[in-house]
């Protein structure tokens, strides 16, 4: 008898998971438009989290369908190590897709950290569909941009590769490729050499 009950319990769990996976997604509201809201600088994620919670608590998911803080992945070099971060594309702004009426306006406008809607008239102005496409496409760019604290003229030491321990100065910086052109003294002559950010260290 115990074996039968155990078997039933084991079967119940995967069935429940299967039901959850099969749950259909709610279709986006065709009347919803994208709007931009101003926030205090540095509070974008907090505002987005609070707004999502208020929307859910007031059962307005069908009218306010998306809350987005546009970000892009970037690679930075910090202390000789490479790491990927998410950088806000529009600091101080959050995008909201919603059907604008008195209730949704009130929910968004009175969320802590929101300073107002972007618009030229008394009421918020929705974004042009082409602008939205461009913004969303920009957030999905997979090739990151390298960022570092190097400057042209900096004295650096090569720490990796065939020119290890050579000392020179930075002549050019290519942020997109994550490279610097360093002028090294090779056989008594000043020679430009392309090196990755991780191959050099500031002196």
Overview of the molecule:
The chain is an alpha+beta fold and 203 residues long. The chain has helices at residues 2-21, 44-57, 102-109, 129-139; strands at residues 33-39, 64-68, 71-78, 81-88, 93-98, 114-117, 146-147, 155-158, 167-174, 179-186, 189-196, 200-202. The protein folds into 2 domains: 26-146, NusG, N-terminal domain (Alpha-Beta Plaits), CATH 3.30.70.940; 148-202, SH3 type barrels (Roll), CATH 2.30.30. The chain has 4 helices and 12 strands; from the N terminus they run H-E-H-E-E-E-E-H-E-H-E-E-E-E-E-E. Strand 10 (179-186) and strand 11 form a beta hairpin. It starts with a helix and ends with a strand.
Features:
26% helix; 203 residues; Alpha-Beta Plaits; alpha+beta; SH3 type barrels; 2 domains; 4-stranded antiparallel β-sheet; 5-stranded antiparallel β-sheet; 4 helices
| Domain module tally | 2
Strand-residue fraction?
Answer: 25-35%
Q: Under the CATH scheme, which architecture of the largest domain would be assigned?
A: 2-Layer Sandwich
Question: What is the third-level CATH name, the topology of the largest domain?
Answer: Alpha-Beta Plaits
Structural category:
alpha+beta
Q: Major sheet: order of its strands? A: 11-10-9-8-12
Q: Approximately how much helix is present in the residues?
A: 25-40%
**Could you give a short account of the major beta sheet?**
5 strands, antiparallel
The helix/strand series, from N terminus to C terminus, equals HEHEEEEHEHEEEEEE
Number of helices: 4
What's the shape? Answer: elongated
The overall average pLDDT, rounded, is 83
What is the assigned CATH homologous superfamily of the largest domain?
NusG, N-terminal domain
**CATH structural class of the largest domain:** Alpha Beta
Rg over CA atoms: 26 Å
**Strands, total number:** 12
Low-confidence stretches: 5-24
Q: How far from one another are the termini?
A: 76 Å
């Amino acid at each position: 008898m115990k074996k039968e009950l155990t078997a039933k319990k084991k079967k119940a769990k995967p069935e429940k998971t299967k039901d959850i996976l099969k749950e259909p997604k709610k279709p986006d509201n065709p009347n919803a438009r994208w709007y931009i809201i101003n926030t205090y600088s540095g509070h974008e994620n907090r505002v987005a989290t609070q707004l999502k919670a208020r929307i859910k608590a007031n059962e307005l998911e069908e009218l306010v369908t998306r809350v987005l803080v546009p970000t892009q992945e970037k690679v930075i070099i910090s202390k000789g190590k490479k790491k990927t971060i998410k950088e806000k594309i529009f600091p101080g702004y959050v995008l909201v897709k919603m059907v604008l009426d008195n209730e949704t306006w009130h929910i968004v406008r009175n969320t802590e950290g929101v300073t107002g809607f972007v618009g030229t008239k008394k009421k918020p102005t929705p974004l042009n569909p082409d602008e939205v496409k461009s913004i969303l496409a920009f957030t999905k760019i997979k090739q990151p941009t390298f960022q570092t604290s190097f400057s042209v003229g900096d004295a650096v030491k090569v720490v990796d590769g065939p020119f290890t321990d050579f000392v020179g100065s930075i002549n050019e910086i290519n942020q997109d490729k994550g490279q610097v052109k360093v002028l090294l003294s090779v056989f008594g002559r000043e020679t430009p050499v392309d090196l990755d950010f991780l191959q050099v260290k500031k002196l």
